[in-house]
Amino acid sequence: MLENTLSGGNSPIHRLDPKIRILTACFLSIAAALCDNLILALGYLIIALGLTGLARLPIKALTKRLSPLCWFLLMIWIFLPLTFEGNIVFEYGWLRVSSQGILLSAKISLKSVAILLMFSALVATMPMASLGSGLHQLKVPDKLVFLLLMTYRYIAVIQGEYSRLLRAAKFRGFKPGTNLHSYRTYAFLAGMLFVRASFRAKRVYQAMRCRGFQEKFHTLDFYPANGLNYLFLWAMLLLTAGLVLMELTWI
Questions:
Q1: Same domain, 245 and 195
Q2: pLDDT value, residue 1
Q3: pLDDT at residue 130 above 90?
Q4: Is residue 239 part of a domain?
Q5: pLDDT, average across residues 12-16
Q6: Pairing with 168, which of 11, 12, 110, 203 sits 20 to 30 Å away (CA)?
Q7: Which domain holds residue 32?
Q8: Statement to judge: residues 110 and 231 lie in one domain
């Protein structure tokens, strides 16, 4: 099963109801994504950092999650200021850097990091079963919830099956390359992987039926109803609404 290193903490965020965290993450991320003001984008980043601190997330795990995004943002900073039309602030030969390109790159960077930190603090800190329970309480269709949970559960199984098939091919002398034989071999591997995944899906479904599965979602996690959950939700909603009103007022 895929590793979830952020769900084992004991912080105020970890003790919140999953549906409250999902709603808060959705509202904050949508507002941050639609923000078009650099100062307010910085405000969303400050909120995300506050949530990260409240969740007591380890720096090492956050750095690992941010590293792929940082490489993407690096490409943005390399190409966008050079290709975006606007006022030229630096020119050297054919290189022309526009102020609008720099501003847009800064907005994208702040909003991207803020959204990733929000989901890391609010959603990634819950086990997958709790996430499914929260989605179920929010009236997300059961089939989508089951699909999410089964995908999370068996993606590592499918990866292991692919590794075994590829290892068996290499034992028989297969050497990957850019030739027709390699392409045909990988096509056979993909076909066998789909066939085995189909057979495994049927066996899993039969096993679940034998254990009394009736298409209902159950979880052992218990989150008692208390005012702290709704106080946190309303505080985040009011803070988000304040930032949105500030942006509308400035426009």
A1: no
A2: 45
A3: no
A4: yes
A5: 83
A6: 203
A7: 18-126+222-250
A8: yes
Residues 194 and 75 placed together within one structural domain of the fold: no
pLDDT (average), residues 120-134: 84
pTM value is 0.79
Half-sphere exposure of residue 51: CA atoms within 13 angstroms, side-chain side:
33
Distance between CA atoms of residues 53 and 125, nearest Å: 12
Q: In the 3-class helix/strand/coil scheme, how is 51-83 assigned residue by residue?
A: HHHHHCCCHHHHHHHHHHHHHHHHHHHHHHHHH
pLDDT score, position 114: 92
Place of tokens 């050297």: 92
Same domain, 160 and 186: yes
pLDDT, residue 30, reads 92
Asked if 14 and 125 count as a contact pair (C-beta separation under 8 A), the reply is: yes
* Shared-domain flag, residues 118 and 35: yes
User: Cα separation of 116 and 110, whole Å?
Assistant: 10
Shared domain check, 112 and 38:
yes
* Pairing assessment for the beta strands 95-98 and 88-92 based on DSSP bridges: antiparallel
Cβ count within 10 A of residue 202: 10
**230 located within any domain:** yes
- Secondary element (H or E) of residue 98: strand 95-98
In the chain, the number of structural domains is 2
Does 121 share its domain with 140? no
User: What are the structure tokens assigned to 63, written together?
Assistant: 């750095």
Distance of CA 89 to the CA centre of its chain: 36
Residue 58 lies in a domain: yes
Taking each helix axis as running N to C, give the angle between helix 99-122 and helix 18-34, from 0 to 180 degrees, rounded to the nearest 10: 180
Handedness of CA 83, 44, 131, 10 (dihedral sign): positive
Of 54, 26, 49, 53, residue with least CA distance to 114: 49
Place of tokens 């002398």: 173
My answer on whether 24 and 75 are in the same domain is yes
